[in-house]
Amino acid sequence: MTAFHMESGSLADGRQILYFNTAPDAGRGGFADKRDLGGRVSAGEIRYDVLRDEWVAVSAGRSDRPTLPVACPLCPSHGDELTEVPAPDYEVAVFENRFPSFGGFDAPGLPAPTEIPDGMETAVPAAGRCEVVCFSDDHDSSLVELSPERVALVVRALAQRTAELSARGDIAQVFCFENRGVEIGVTLHHPHGQIYGYPYVTPQTRKHLAAAKRHKETTGRDLFDDIIASERRGPRVIAENDHWIAFTPYAARWPFEVQIHPKARFADLAELPEEYIDAFAPLYLEVLKRCDGAFPGQQMPYMAGWHQAPVGEGREFGRLRLELVSIRRGAGKVKFLASSESVMGGWVHDLGPEASADILKGAL
Amino acid sequence: MTAFHMESGSLADGRQILYFNTAPDAGRGGFADKRDLGGRVSAGEIRYDVLRDEWVAVSAGRSDRPTLPVACPLCPSHGDELTEVPAPDYEVAVFENRFPSFGGFDAPGLPAPTEIPDGMETAVPAAGRCEVVCFSDDHDSSLVELSPERVALVVRALAQRTAELSARGDIAQVFCFENRGVEIGVTLHHPHGQIYGYPYVTPQTRKHLAAAKRHKETTGRDLFDDIIASERRGPRVIAENDHWIAFTPYAARWPFEVQIHPKARFADLAELPEEYIDAFAPLYLEVLKRCDGAFPGQQMPYMAGWHQAPVGEGREFGRLRLELVSIRRGAGKVKFLASSESVMGGWVHDLGPEASADILKGAL
């Protein structure tokens, strides 16, 4: 088990920054942010879509965010090069996003209403919180190149953030994720992830909760237990150890898609025992290496996110697992989501889930 | 009113081709396809996703489809240049897709089961039908450059296809759409659209039906009537005439998003009166010109599709309208769907729907 030590600091515009350190008293929290950032960016509002029964965030301030800036804002600050991280070095750092999709300084502390609104136009201020998670102070690294100990420290930081954000009262669901690769529009190459504290339960989670609830009522069993048992017997297992299993699901949508489940039931990262975190790190690194090895010389662009139970509702049916998906469909080829997927939600898997899993299984 | 005359032919591998002509006895159906295409490509299967309660198509044969081939297969055949269209010219031509996502020659004539399957792995052969719709025999044209009469002929062809596919018995929903632009992965630049005859009711349509049903039960009113009445009073109307209204919706997801509704209730294109088709064409051309004018010198990449009521269920709550969405978010910039949208279904509108609508309103 690797303990961690957390230090807190603040940025020039009042945003919070947290350092997750392996050693006590690292003294990183004491460095001042010497920039003049002006006022904080407000997140805007969330609007109710009457046609889909879903909330959509409107965040016009984000249009001003930088596109591949010359100086990396996620590197540590050095001399006159002042960044989002005032300390001169760090292991894992987490700070509030300067251009948040949700939350911000002037949002009230209430999540979206859960009842269906009357009327055709309903909006509420976008409560919630958006954070940036830096995995390393080495700009040229990548999550897949880090040590298992560092990956475990990242997961511990995400667990701490999940616990704290869940207790705020204005967040309905915590989502920790990483976007990687210019092919999916990543604007900062420094290794990092993000956390969205949504003020509503997301549409995908609502689907999963409904399916798990129905399965429990129909069969008396946990849906995820049944999925894991079925996939373990099947041809699409990518990696496995005592505590975790990684597989391409039977009805995969993306050309490459891996679900990583703990073999016991946990609602979220905050519930995950230390030994599960330690066992996750090497397994995840293996999966990432298989992804990068699928098409030699071509990093796999991916989106990877932790599904967690919502904070306040459906907690007994939500279950922690990681989902990694990629638009890579071949050497030098990406899948574009066109009208069928984007307008109707009708997906077509061109490779076939077994062929896709076989590529990952043969990639190391 | 413009009548049309339909001629039927067949391609070398047995697929059907239809010509929609303004003049009778054009004689296009009689041209033989002289190619040696070998056997037909089978569409594969659809798999049930237990976690989302949705069907997903697996169509491995599509991986072989051409990427920007040198000779355009949608141009008319001339001399030794043999294409998918045997006739030497055409107005509007529709043929079965050689690389179908659904259907194909060996699929049985049954749609997906509507009850929730038992078990973790359920698949059925992919019934349904995929068609290609060529808007013009001029390779270098684009829908926005065609005459209102030609656009109306295209819509009449789609209406005929909707009626015929709805009567087959193996199709649950007919979706007519156009993908336009290399930015969204279009591999053939010849102006064309597609038709998917899905063997299941798509996830988006299920959401819309549920919302319309609940609205009717709660208020006694038609949801779409209320949406149109609300949007007509609002700041996001892009274009309007006696029979149609085009607006950016209040809770838009995409940087540019336009819904085009007929002002009366029709379940699908097959129900649309002639005068509505004639009135649609100039309005749609205006909307497309506004899209292309939004960022001068840059064609707007878009996905445009007709929402139609399903064939067999929820017909009283489904309602015809066109949805056009674009990933363009600025001059030379596109929006990428990353983890929040792709994994969780959580959308963030960066421009703001009113600012987006203002750009289209000022674009001509």
From TrEMBL, chains A, B:
Swiss-Prot/TrEMBL keywords: Carbohydrate metabolism, Galactose metabolism, Metal-binding, Nucleotidyltransferase, Transferase, Zinc
GO CC annotation terms, alphabetical: cytoplasm
Catalyzed chemical reaction(s): alpha-D-galactose 1-phosphate + UDP-alpha-D-glucose = alpha-D-glucose 1-phosphate + UDP-alpha-D-galactose
GO MF entries: UDP-glucose:hexose-1-phosphate uridylyltransferase activity; zinc ion binding
PANTHER family cross-referenced by the UniProt entry: GALACTOSE-1-PHOSPHATE URIDYLYLTRANSFERASE
One GO term (biological process): galactose catabolic process via UDP-galactose, Leloir pathway
UniProt keyword Transport present: no
One Pfam family matching this protein: GalP_UDP_tr_C
Family: Belongs to the galactose-1-phosphate uridylyltransferase type 1 family.
Enzyme Commission identifier(s): 2.7.7.12
Binding sites annotated in the UniProt record for Zn(2+): C72, C75, H139, H190
Domain Galactose-1-phosphate uridyl transferase N-terminal stretches: 70-201
Note on how the cofactor is bound: Binds 1 zinc ion per subunit.
Cofactor(s) demanded: Zn(2+)
Keyword Iron included in the entry's annotation: no
Entry-linked InterPro entries: GalP_UDPtransf1, GalP_UDPtransf1_His-AS, GalP_Utransf_C, GalP_Utransf_N, HIT-like_sf
PROSITE patterns in UniProt: GAL_P_UDP_TRANSF_I (PS00117)
Lineage: Bacteria, Bacillati, Actinomycetota, Actinomycetes, Glycomycetales
Ranges for domain Galactose-1-phosphate uridyl transferase C-terminal: 215-312
Protein name, entry field: Galactose-1-phosphate uridylyltransferase
Top-rank EC class of the record's enzyme: transferase
Pathway this chain belongs to: Carbohydrate metabolism; galactose metabolism
Active site: H192 (tele-ump-histidine intermediate)
